[in-house]
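Q: What would this chain look like folded?
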Amino acid sequence: MEKKYARTLVTTALPYANGPVHIGHLAGVYVPADIYTRYLRLKGEDVIMVGGSDEHGVPITIKAQKEGVTPQDIVDRYHEIIKKSMEGLGISFDVYSRTTSAMHRQTASEFFRTLYEKGEFVEKTSQQLYDEEADQFLADRYVTGTCPHCGFDHAYGDQCESCGTSLNATDLINPKSAITGNTPVLKETKHWYMPLDKWEPRLREWILEGHKEWKPNVYGQCKSWLDEHLQPRAVTRDLNWGIPVPIDGVEGKVLYVWFDAPIGYISNTKELLPDTWERYWKSPDSRIIHFIGKDNIVFHCLIFPAMLMAEGSYQLPENVPANEFLNLEGEKISTSRNWAIWLNEYLEEFPGKQDVLRYVLTANAPETKDNDFTWADFQARNNNELVAILGNFVNRATVLTHKYFGGKVPQCGELADYDREVVAEMGKVKETLGDNIEHFHFREALKDAMNLARLGNKYLADTEPWKLAKTDMARVETILNVALQIAANLAIAFEPFLPFSAEKLRKMLCMDKADWSRLGATDLLKAGAEIEKPELLFEKIEDDVIEAQRARLERIKQENIVANFKPKAVAAPVPFEDFQKLDIRVGRVVKCEKVKKADKLLCLTIDDGLKGRTIVSGIAKWYRPEELEGKEVCFVANFAPRTFKGIESQGMILSAEDADGRLVVIGPHGEVKPGVRVG
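A: My prediction, written as structure tokens:
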């Protein structure tokens, strides 16, 4: 039997304030957290959702350095962008604060001091990379070099973005400072460490024995870390941006961001409820739920709980329903490559379509494995589900009510057997939908809500009240009463998922509020009550809108290819005499046509100033025949003939492979007579 709690604290991972949030963040953390919180509020439970911006750490200092501004300038800018865009999508935080606040600095400093005075830290002296010109120790992200595992020559000191392996900066081959480009030296420094190994037995019992109900991806990752055994982890670092280590005589050191950031959940709660915050963090009848992405599982399931265990007065999280990653059009989302759909830009480009994004991200939520967002699926789900199922049913029910009953809810007469079947199905939604949300199965819960709309559509299609209106208005009254009750139930069922549309529907039906306890009821709307004129809940998204978004992503992909292009190493030297053996000439393309049954091949008839020749070239992917006719090209004239698809090719067209793999035919800049030699 599941334990009942008096209150629930929902926390969401703190996004780095060095850029906007994107759809990966939303699908992984913020939309599911908001669904869960809205659901508990709908039930009348005591719940608060806290969040905020993570404003410390090296990514912020790197961005500030690139832009020539201060780290505070960066976090001030992006904190406002993130906060505003979250509000725009309806992510209903009770408080959204920041880790540069005075409250957070005080809370994090006090937390460190408590553990320090209890003797929970271990002091260690170690060798770390130091930039002598910059006169500072280098954080992991300030060191680049060659990955010792895959040979990628631009790996960071904490991770190789090519093979994904976690690294230490000292692991890199040929390390370089990202600040000056110099080779760093090893220098001794002292730091304080959290002895995670001390807490491993208790963590093992708490998770592996006490929380087998956690999602398999979360439980499995925790087990893997515990089986490999935990090691002490530094809680301080040499940096000038962050919360100073609160120990007398210590300068130039700050709290490590992994230690500082989760304490933000506590400081944000204190900021919201200065007098009663401890009820949510320290009372046994409170539960804490952390919504995070899979890259934060170790911090929220092992490291932060170890910190809370060491402090001694806090409750541990009841659940950490971490999601996997959301990809974009088949590729991993990358902020550095701008391969993302940014929330602030989406809200500008798709005004009034917040719920469309919420719906698609929930329907494709990466709950147990990585999933993919595509613009084609976005359009299909909007047009085929939101418009054609949910919106269509609501519109039919309300339009028919206005047509036949002047916009007043008709009386419900005696129910036919089919009516009773439909009403019974409607009554089951509350249990299944609620159970799925309670167990963090938001995709299935969304299906439950949409199936109620499907039920309504089928009911109207089967009963055909527009036909009965000619012969049996009493029957029409009953049918439309049932249909409107289904619509009213949809306003409750969809409130956690589609809050803007649910509110619009409630206003259309003149419902005062959404009340979870009434979900499944058949008297949500009273007979004789007036409803507003029908409005479309959703509108179709046309192909040109989607094509514009695809074109944008294609431009970004090409820009990344060009930006990351590195020429291949020069081939081994060859004697000049070998080059002289090649007879390279200029020719004019007289005729060009595709080779039958060969998608890659073009057949070019070349005026070479002599008898003319035919050359077959594999450039059909990049050129249409008409683009080459009349064009001057360079070709190798003295290759031995080869046969392709029955055509003898008497030479080879010269081309260059561009950064994106595209072949570009080589030719002279000005007009040159066919047959002129090159070299």
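The chain has a mean pLDDT of 94.
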